[in-house]
Amino acid sequence: MGETTLIHLSRLIGLQRKLDVTAQNVANVDTNGFRARELSFREYLKPGHGVDESGKQERPLSLPDPRFVFTHGAQGPVQATGNPLDLAIDGDAYFVVMTEQGERYTRNGAFVTDARGRLVTEDGHPVLGRDGALQPSDKNDPISIGPDGVVGTKQRVLGRLRLVRFERPQFLQPVGASLLRSEEKPAPASTSKIVSGAIEKSNVQSAREMMRLTEITRAYEMVGSLLKNSQDADDINKLANVPD
């Protein structure tokens, strides 16, 4: 494979991944608590394995390497719902929920109570308090949540929501639409407050992402055409070098 073909192929792979990430942003423009994602590239140097016409070692070939998807941490717009179990966070913190794979983090505060009276996500993951699982409530005793995260009913306190923050939230990795995981150990978020009866919407800027989607699609088509031309040229060169 010639260098030009390799460059075009590498660029095409990067554009495909960028297209996937941008399309995911567009698809989640209405997902509560969703944080827009972006693809990060780094340089990959492909070592030279031969010598040029002057007999010198070939220089490494610089190629784009679509290495990492990072998360935009800007808060999305907060929309009032009037539902006391809908919670938004005023600050940079995250809710903590328990899944089969362990603790996960989210800004999606669209919570409900399950058949056991536990506060859970819409997918059934229990919301965690500072001391672990929150105590279940009586079905006939409505839950209320204060700005300090204290969860209770008229009869008793069920616990206090655990809110955490990260030094590098851009490195949180998505798990589905609204859950996140982290290799970094979270710290308690002592300054963030809870807004009950409201929900944080997606921070995706729809018009911007749609424009990027169009730009990436056009670039993909152009590079795809260049790649085909390069492959055709490589095939012609191979035929030209076939001995009679």
From TrEMBL:
Coiled-coil regions listed in the entry: none
Family: Belongs to the flagella basal body rod proteins family.
InterPro entries in the record: Flag_bb_rod_N, Flagellar_FlgE/F/G, Flg_bb/hook_C_dom, FlgE/F/G-like, FlgF, LlgE_F_G-like_D1
Residues of the Flagellar basal-body/hook protein C-terminal domain: 196-232
NCBIfam families linked to this entry: FlgEFG_subfam, flgF
Gene Ontology process terms (BP): bacterial-type flagellum-dependent swarming motility
Domain Flagellar basal body rod protein N-terminal: 7-35
Ranges where the record places region Disordered: 122-148
Residues annotated as domain Flagellar hook protein FlgE/F/G-like D1: 88-151
Lineage: Bacteria, Pseudomonadati, Pseudomonadota, Alphaproteobacteria, Hyphomicrobiales
Protein name: Flagellar basal-body rod protein FlgF
